[in-house]
Specification:
This protein is mainly β and 133 residues long. Helices cover 12% and strands 41% of the residues.
Amino acid sequence: MSCGCKSHKDVVVNAAPEFSAEETWHLTVQKGKEFAPLEGQKEITIRINPEAGTFDGCSGCNRYFGTFKDLGKGKMILSDFNGTKMACPEAFHKVESNYMQLLHRCNGYRITAYTLELLQDDKVLLSFDKVTE
């Protein structure tokens, strides 16, 4: 009896998805409620680039950006927030302000192939779907 040897590739089972710098996520749920932009308002988006240690996106009217640090095990720090200061309708500004207040509170995340949840401790504050072309 003979045994043959085959070369094989290592297979990673149940690997957690990771952030990709090219991926943009759009807001779908805010504090447990479905979210849709107001008529004429831009989508709220986020993009996280762990290699560069940055995040950026659109908050409905303005662009925002800052520093991202992955602490492992779904924990993170978002800091050094900055952004543009475009004039927007008051209603857009209110939506934007609410979003940014929640984003500042986020200290964790869960990510799947198509969904990103940003958490404060274990509570989901913001949910995003991956933007697909």
